[in-house]
Amino acid sequence: MLNFLQRIGKSLMFPIATLPAAALLVRLGKEDMLDIPFITAAGNGILGNLAIIFAIGIAMGLSHDGSGGAALAGAIGYLVLTEGAQSIDSDIDMKVFGGVIAGIAGGLLYNKYYNVKFPDWLAFFGGKRFVPIITSLVMVATAFVLGFVWPPVQDGLDALGNWILNAGTAGVGIYGVLNRLLIPVGLHHVMNAVIWFDFGTFTTASGEVFHGEINRFLNGDPEAGYFLAGFFPVMMFGLPAACAAMYVAAKKERKAAVGGLLFSIAFTSFLTGVTEPIEFSFMFLSPLLYVVHALLTGVSMMAAYLLDIRHGFGFSAGLIDYLLNFTLAQNPLLLAGLGIVMGAIYFVIFYFLIIKLDLKTPGREDEDMEEEQMETEKGDYDALAYHYIEAIGGMNNIESLDYCTTRLRMQITDQEKVDEKKLKRLGARGVMKMSKKNLQVIVGTTVEFVADAMRKRMDRGDTAAPDETVEGVQPCEKATSEKYLAGKDFALPIEGRVMELSEVPDEVFAQGMMGQGFAIDPSGDTFTSPVDGKVVNVFPTKHAIGLETESGIEILIHIGLDTVKLQGEGFELLVEDGQAVTKGTPLIKVDFDRIRDKVPSIVTPIVFTNLEDESLTLLETGNQHSQTTNIVTIQK
User: Fold this and answer.
1) What are the domain boundaries of the chain?
2) Are 476 and 465 in contact (CB under 8 A)?
3) What confidence tens digit (pLDDT) does each residue in 262-278 have?
4) How far apart (Å, rounded) are the C-alpha atoms in residues 509 and 560?
5) How does it sit in the bilayer (predicted)?
């Protein structure tokens, strides 16, 4: 259940990512800015439709491949749900909850039915086309049930919202503390979505209705902004001051090593309000400090409320949002003064606790932890991906991989194989073992690039070390001979229809992201080696195999699309890693009748992954026999 809620929280980042654009448009169009009403109206076009945006974003986020088909199903599900329920009771207004319900349904139904097969006379409605159909049917039934069940739920939610909004100092304080305490498990996004986009109602003079703290604040509600203002002192002043305290408390010989890191994450927090890199730098090294930080956040929220300060943001409580909404805020200069005070409090408390209790914050770790951080060339995410995979225990130890704003989220086979120290030397801010199988690694704002690079390596079963030097890791040796392949040197590995790589129904392969190559729609069942060389990679799930020719050309045979999820079902491996092969050596036998209906396609890309200045020419297409030569050539 926790993992499922975390996935929903991660999916919420899709719609939340639209808020900066919406907030900017709303503010720029206001009378005190550019005074161009249509710009404000354009921004409110986003804010006024957050429920359906949530439905689309959550469905896409929950789908296994981020498909637009899931997004469409989420949108259709929302429309069916809300219209159906309101036809039973016109007072029903699910707000963002309707979007969340429809998004979850759309995403889960997509994962279940995206590759469903029907008889030929119904084939047009199979696969992804069936997902919006089944979603609409499911949501019709859901609308009927909620038409009778939702009214008392709605009354209860309204009562809870009114209590929180009217609880004054206690309400904002409790929210502030919980907001920080839920970050380690990634559920703060779920709570924020309710406060920011649902609770509270404001009707403008023109009759427009807005829900949620952010929407109401940006559109001039004089009662909104109390649940947002208190974050500014923490994110702009408090946490940067905590970084300063950790720097001053660091060991003398370690200050140079941690100074750059602490300054960069402190400046990020001050400017943009992105705080997780700071929080994860001490969250697990010193949990006491994190509890203190959560309590101080509550103090800041309550102090801002007692000082009658209202302020708001469209993304987070950093300098950018502080200045953008300055004229819309109430007592913003007083908020800056509160920030200075909170900064001083953070510095004193953090420094005192670190020194007094000898807390192991950055720069104060024990000697066996003070290993130099591994360095890779800036932007070399493939190298980082290799070392992250190694530190997590190898590809065999990773069952699934996902990410959110700053962290990798993985299902792990064996947590004991995870090397936390190595992950931290690679730059990870923290490692969270949520359960026996659930692992989170806090990478920072570059997490998307690291995750994508890891996925590429996992998809092609690439376990080769990168060509770079990292302390304690030796680079692999690159072949120096000319990469050349004559037509007679390559024999088609299986009978089938040969096609251009651009025809593969997968964007990664079709756009050549994995390298040059071609594809086969196989009609046989056994793949043989197309070249003389050796086996260099056999993916644990047997769906892909890597070969290397004597001249150093690396070849990936990726059998079918999305076949990794089959976990080896239907595949019989006939060779092993490191084995020498010649043209015609059997590699893998596949039961296509068994797997055909379980994957999007059995089209098999054959990719030459390490070509640089060389170019590949496809000489033949169409139906070809196994072991046919003069299919491709490679030359400079």
Assistant:
1) 1-210, 230-357, 372-460, 487-635
2) yes
3) 898 899 889 988 787 78
4) 11
5) Multi-pass membrane protein
Q: Is the pLDDT of residue 366 over 60?
A: no
Contact 408, 440 (CB under 8 A): yes
The fold adopted by the segment(s) 487-635 is Glucose Permease (Domain IIA) (2.70.70)
Q: What integer pLDDT is reported at residue 482 of this predicted model?
A: 59
- For residue 252, pLDDT over 50 is answered with yes
The tokens of 227 are what?
């649940």
Strands 622-624 and 526-528: unpaired
**Distance between CA atoms of 317 and 74, rounded to whole angstroms?**
30
Per-residue pLDDT of 218-240, as tens digits, reads 999 999 999 999 999 999 999 99
Which two tokens mark 408? Answer: 């990798």
Closest CA relative to residue 193, chosen from 35, 81, 54: 54
Instruction: State whether the Cα torsion 125-128-133-137 is positive or negative.
Output: positive
Q: Which residue type is seen at 337?
A: G
Separation CA 40–CA 28 (nearest Å):
7
Strands 526-528 and 586-590: antiparallel
Q: Return the beta strands (E) in 304-463 as ranges.
A: 398-403, 407-412, 430-433, 438-442
Q: Judge whether 476 counts as a catalytic residue.
A: no
Spatial CB neighbours of 279, under 8 Å, sequence gap ≥ 6: 180, 183, 239, 290, 293
Under DSSP, is residue 554 helix (H, G, I), strand (E, B) or coil? strand
Q: Residue 612 carries which side chain, given as an amino acid letter?
A: E
365 pLDDT band, cuts 50/70/90, is: low
Report residue 124 CA to chain centroid gap.
Answer: 33
- Whole-number average pLDDT of the chain: 85
Residues 135-159 have a mean pLDDT of 91
User: With contact defined as beta carbons under 8 Å apart, do 395 and 461 qualify?
Assistant: yes
The three-state secondary structure class of 521 is: strand
pLDDT of 123 reads: 81
Residue entry with tokens 């396609």: 601
> Is the predicted pLDDT of residue 370 greater than 60, yes or no?
no
E strands along 532-614, which residues? Answer: 533-538, 544-549, 554-558, 571-573, 580-581, 586-590, 604-608
Structure tokens at 344: 């001083």
pTM score, whole prediction: 0.55
- Dihedral angle of Cα 99, 314, 305, 157, to the nearest 10 degrees: 0
DSSP structural state of residue 365: -
In this prediction, residue 314 carries a pLDDT of 83
CB-CB neighbours of 355 under 10 Å? 13
pLDDT (tens digit per residue) in 57-73? 889 888 877 788 899 99
Contacts of 377 (CB under 8 A, 6+ apart): 383, 468
pLDDT exceeding 70 applies to what percent of the chain?
A: 89
217 vs 182, 189, 418, CA distance in Å?
24, 19, 45
Angle formed by the axes of helices 169-181 and 130-166, nearest 10° = 140
What is the tens place of the pLDDT at every residue in 303-321? 999 999 999 998 789 999 9
Domain 372-460 coded CATH 3.30.365.10: no
Whose CA is closest to 41, among 63, 25, 57? 25
Distance, CA of 127 to CA of 472 (rounded, Å): 48
Segment among 44-48, 469-473, 534-538, 556-560 with least mean pLDDT: 469-473
Counting every residue, how long is the chain? 636
d(CA 26, CA 204): 14
